[in-house]
Each structure stands twice: as structure tokens, then as C-alpha cells.
């Protein structure tokens, strides 16, 4: 009997470790998500804001892949509905899959968004940096942010803590099941624990640049009629 207890002890320890890890991840995820409670909308219900932030994602041969394209489509819809006046695209201008910024700008322009209404941040290297740089570099104080549902609570939480009066707008997540599961696993195992630490121990963005007044100029120009209005929804 003693041998049986001894032989089962390692298995019991591993089981306890797994249960503890899962519990910790669940609590961390819930804490991050609580920061975004009641601040997430579908596109038709989104409140108005001066600008929508579009976080970058993978591109292929200079074109947005499905995840990023869905985010950009929401930005286009918000512009067409008059819910926002400008778009801030924020991603990696030297990403491993290509220049996310140029791909996003080109796609938005193809969809009818006035290039003069788009502001580009090529140093939004992750969601935290996107949020912090939106405030520190581009002077964002109120905004919408659009991304997929699994990512949205974290994005809203980080923007809120950065000092933005923020609301999130869900983008479609029309990807293969395998990709969806991989994204969910990465979100809950890696990204939310990282965000949990970032919420408690804020850091400077990886790249800091001087303030950029382009967004303020766009909004001021709209107020005085110097920038063309967005196309009306058909």
C-alpha cells in the first residue's frame, strides 16, 4: 500500500500543478476581461468617437489576411455610418509577414476611405504599445477599437488603462477552426497573462517618437470643412 501511495504521488503533484495553472490562467483572464465589461459592441450599436484604432495583424504579399481584413472592414463601416471621423492604423511597419501599415492603408483606400483621414503608427508592435502610443504620440483621448472577440477585452482593457475613453467593436473571426483554436490558446495562455502584468506594471512603449499632430489636424480640418467628408453608406 505504501508503494502504491508513493507511486501515485508524482501523478498527484502533476495534477495539482495543472489544476493550479488552469485556475490561475482563468482568474487572470477574468480580471483582464473585467476591465472591458460593458464596453464592447457590434458595429450597428457602436457609439460615436473621433477615431477608430485598428491593430495590425499578419499580411501576405502586401495584402491583409482574413483577420486583419475583418478589422479593416469594421473601420470602413464605422466611417460610412459616420460613427468615426478618422482611422488610426497601428501595427508593425517592418513585420515578419510584411509591412502591416502599408497593407492596411492600401486596403482602406481601395474601400473608399479618404487617405487624408488615415493616420499611421508603424510602431504599434503589440496591443500595449498601440494603446500607449495612441495617447502619448497621437493625442488620442476618445476612440473606438476594433478587433476579433477573443482579442477585444484585452485591447479595450489596455486602451482604458492608457487613458483612452474607449469602446470596442467586434470584428468577424471567419478563420479555420485550427487557426481559431490556436488564437484562443495563445490569447489565454500567453497574451492575457502578459496584459495582466502590463496593467499592473506599466512600461514605456518599445519605440518612443515625438508627438504627431496629424490626427488633431484632421479633426480640426473636418470641423472647419478643410477635409473631405467620408462617403455615405449606400
From TrEMBL:
<feature type="domain" description="DUF218">
    <location>
        <begin position="51"/>
        <end position="188"/>
    </location>
</feature>
<protein>
    <submittedName>
        <fullName>YdcF family protein</fullName>
    </submittedName>
</protein>
<dbReference type="InterPro" id="IPR051599">
    <property type="entry name" value="Cell_Envelope_Assoc"/>
</dbReference>
<dbReference type="InterPro" id="IPR003848">
    <property type="entry name" value="DUF218"/>
</dbReference>
<dbReference type="GO" id="GO:0005886">
    <property type="term" value="C:plasma membrane"/>
</dbReference>
<dbReference type="Pfam" id="PF02698">
    <property type="entry name" value="DUF218"/>
</dbReference>
Amino acid at each position: 500500500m505504501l508503494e502504491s501511495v508513493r507511486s501515485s504521488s508524482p501523478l498527484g503533484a502533476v495534477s495539482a500543478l495543472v489544476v493550479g495553472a488552469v485556475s490561475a490562467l482563468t482568474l487572470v483572464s477574468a480580471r483582464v476581461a473585467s476591465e472591458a465589461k460593458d464596453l464592447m459592441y457590434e458595429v450597428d450599436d457602436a457609439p460615436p468617437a473621433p477615431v477608430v484604432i485598428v491593430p495590425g495583424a499578419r499580411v501576405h504579399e502586401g495584402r491583409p489576411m482574413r483577420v486583419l481584413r475583418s478589422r479593416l472592414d469594421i473601420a470602413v463601416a464605422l466611417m460610412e455610418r459616420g460613427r468615426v471621423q478618422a482611422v488610426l492604423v497601428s501595427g508593425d511597419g517592418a513585420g515578419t509577414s510584411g509591412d502591416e501599415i502599408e497593407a492596411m492603408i492600401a486596403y482602406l483606400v481601395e474601400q473608399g476611405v479618404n487617405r487624408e483621414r488615415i493616420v499611421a503608427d508603424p510602431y504599434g508592435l503589440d496591443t500595449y504599445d498601440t494603446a500607449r502610443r495612441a495617447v502619448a504620440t497621437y493625442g488620442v483621448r476618445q476612440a473606438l477599437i476594433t478587433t476579433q472577440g477573443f482579442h477585444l477585452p484585452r485591447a479595450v482593457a489596455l486602451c482604458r488603462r492608457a487613458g483612452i475613453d474607449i469602446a470596442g467593436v467586434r470584428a468577424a473571426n471567419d478563420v479555420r477552426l485550427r487557426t481559431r483554436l490556436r488564437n484562443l490558446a495563445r490569447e489565454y495562455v500567453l497574451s492575457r497573462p502578459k496584459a495582466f502584468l502590463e496593467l499592473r506594471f506599466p512600461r514605456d512603449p518599445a519605440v518612443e517618437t515625438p508627438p504627431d499632430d496629424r490626427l488633431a489636424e484632421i479633426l480640426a480640418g473636418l470641423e472647419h470643412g478643410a477635409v473631405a467628408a467620408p462617403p455615405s453608406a449606400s
